[in-house]
Amino acid sequence: MLALGGIAAAWAGLLLVFAVTLEPHGDELYFLAAGDRLDWGYADQPPLLPLLAHAADVAAPGSVLVLRLPAVALTACGVFVVGMLARELGGGRKAQVVAAATFAVSPHLAVTGSLLVTPTVDAFMWAVLTLLLVRWVRLRDDRLLLGAGVVVAVALQAKYLVLVFCAAALISALLVGPRDIVRRPRLWAGAGLAFAALLPSALWQAWHGWPQLRMAAVVPAEIDQLGGGRASVVPLLLLTAGVPIGAGMACAGLWALLRSTALRDYRWLGWASAGVVVFFVVSGGRYYYCFGLLPLLWAVAAVRVEDGRPAARWLTGRPAWALSAAVVLVLAVAVQTPAMDRVRALANNSGGWRQVVEPVHHAYQHVAPEQRRTTVVVAEHYWQASVLERLWPGRDRPEVRSPHRGFWYFGPPSEQHDTTLFVGGDPGPLREHFRTVVPVAGDDPHDVRVWLCTGRQQPWSGLWPALRRL
Prior knowledge:
5 strands; RgtA/B/C-like; single chain; five-stranded mixed sheet; 64% helix; mainly alpha; 2 domains
């Protein structure tokens, strides 16, 4: 465990450097905005991350480090989880260290492990869930199944995707064994706990017309727009797992789970992993939806390495480790450079927020003083709205709204707001509802465009539903 502790400490140190130097991610700012409006659910999220963001903001207002401490802690603990997975599978010290080191040289975790975003929490919870299931296979202690239900209950507060893994695992167990798992009362007791934890956010979704289900059509369209489409899911998953170590170990681990007679008792988890990947490829999910499967596959491959399997041993030679570590170090340097600010801004992801805030602030200051108190900022994208609400300079921030995604559900502007500053590329949806729509900022191609809209022709309560988009 000392070796795992050393890897975890080094990994946490690197993540803390990222945590204090990287600008807020768009989703982090959105969670802060959502946390100011605590609810049982949101259009695109369960309530956990907005709640964590709100707690961090109350404890240390404006501190990005405090906001990100839960993410850093979970990612560092992931080192121990993957090491324990290797031990449960029969691995000794070497296997545990190899599995933990593979976890630590993953580019995906290097980039997201310090961010309070859903993939960070989701991947950790999946890893803990697979650890409990692997341990149950070895011990047949049904208290572990109850514990798995608790883990699923917590995971469902961050993302609903764990239900896909649970369904795949149950189907695989029925097809290839252990079939007796479905006859264990504590499995269903754990499922009951998970259902009870899911119920509040499910009721919120039902009350608001199931927006999360409509998101299932939005995500594939976004992936197609970025290029690659469904065909990019597996390549991106392997690339961000780490080249060559992470990708090679993942493939070797899955192959061993499906083919090795020594791992026959765990084969159902291999088929469940394959089923999850196929599901997200077919349904058009994002590549990182599958990332929580990798700790198990890495642990399996690490045990094979320790056993001296030639097909696995070549993956962990010094050149492979050097290349994988170099990729992470290059990322560590690259994300700090000024050039990356422009890349992040173009990706509308994180960084480059000055190009969003300054033009809007400048346009607002040029609105006639008597008109400002009835001016609202309406942003085209929910990240833009989050940025403007959380990073506005000074105390004169106007009301900020967005018809996009979860921000739409925060409600329309107040009816006294007759003047609108629209932030976005195309004000087309507003032209038919305002008498005049004129550009007031955005001549610089690197800045967002801002439009002054006056002469609103109908109440916001009637206009807002027409503007909604996911």
